[in-house]
Amino acid sequence: MRWLRANLFSNWPNTIATLVIVWLAWKLLVPFFDWALVEAIWVASDTQTCRAAKGTGACWALIHEKHRFMLFGTYPFELQWRPLLVILILLALYVTSALRSCWRPWLAVAWMVGLAAIGILMWGGVLGLRYVENERWGGLALTLLLATFGIALAFPLAILLALGRRSELPVLRALCVLYIELIRGVPLISLLFMASVMLPLFLPEGMSIDKLLRAQIAMTLFAAAYLAEVVRGGLQAVPRGQLEAAQALGLPYWRTTWLVVLPQALRISIPPLVNTFIGFFKDTSLVLIIGLFDLLTTVKVSIGEPQWVGFGVEAYIFVSVVYFVFCYAMSRYSQNLELELARGAARGGVR
């Protein structure tokens, strides 16, 4: 009761706002939950059952029917245990990396082993596994792969670009500025088109790069330009005295940057960095334009089939929940990490 009085009923404006919100929640959320849960159809042998209940209950039978396509794309049905295992490996790596107690040298080894296992599972062709071309990859597995590899490759490149933009070498600084401003000045769609259509024209005759790799390169370069500006902002926020103290101790440039400047800059940059990560995760849906079937594309294709036309609300709610879970997890983790690092800094140093 003390918390309610302090936060919801502390004065008349707060009380009125609380009552209005409660009334709106009652009028809007109760009918929604009734439609989404109570009257919903979860499994149906045909779409007629769903059409008979349209307007009164949600048809989650669409998700039940198309969940394999949404998760794995057109990956061969009998081999879909492989992308499922890939998703589980990625989730395990995410969770392990989120634990501060696991920030040890063996974590880098775990990532290398995990990524190697992912490549073997998805492609096959070794250890008795049947080869599957990456044109068959899709769904949630493809979305997670694009986001994971894109962020993992773009982040170190972004740090180098940010350091290069602040370099005292004019040529290096000019090249970094040119790259960052050029990439940030065009939309991601245009880069994907360039990677899909224009890049093969510049390759030697007989040489080709598959479209998944081209898309990954374009998205990595795009993310690196935006992350570089975020890191540069963090570098500028580090007090000048920190750099001068490191120089007074005789530390060379790279040791000063690695041990003194970068840890503080990245701690300061956690909120905008995670914001960029979240935006990049959602931008993976743009690979639709070059013919890759990510999670959102598989949903669009599913509701485009004649028997499932008219059930787009349920499909988009499902994909929204999936995107929300991953984005919210990143957001909450960044908040907790920021608070923990701030406590460490307040005790006398940056961990």
3D architecture notes:
With 351 residues, the protein is mostly helical. Among the domains are: 56 residues; 176 residues, MetI-like fold (Orthogonal Bundle). Helix content is 73%, strand content 1%. Helix 4 crosses helix 14, helix 7 packs across helix 10 and helix 11 packs antiparallel against helix 12. The chain is globular and about 75 Å long.
Which structural traits does this protein have?
351 residues; mainly alpha
Structure in a nutshell:
With about 350 residues, the protein is mainly alpha-helical.
**CATH domain fold name of the domain at 143-239 and 268-346:** MetI-like fold
Query: What is the subunit organization of this protein?
Result: single chain
- Which band does the percent of strand residues land in? under 5%
Given as residue ranges, the uncertain stretches (5+ residues, pLDDT < 50) are: none
Structure summary, number of beta strands? 1
Alpha plus pi helix count: 15
Q: Taking Cα atoms only, what radius of gyration do you get, to the nearest Å?
A: 25 Å
State the helical fraction: over 70%
Q: What is the overall pLDDT average?
A: 87
CATH architecture of the domain at 143-239 and 268-346: Orthogonal Bundle
Instruction: Give the N-terminus to C-terminus distance in angstroms.
Output: 39 Å
Q: What pattern of helices and strands is seen along the backbone?
A: HHHHHHHHHHHHHEHH
Q: Sheet bearing the most strands, described? A: none
User: What general outline do the C-alpha atoms trace?
Assistant: globular
- Look at the helices and sheets and give the structural class: mainly alpha
Q: What is the name of the CATH superfamily of the domain at 143-239 and 268-346?
A: MetI-like
Question: What is the CATH domain class of the domain at 143-239 and 268-346?
Answer: Mainly Alpha
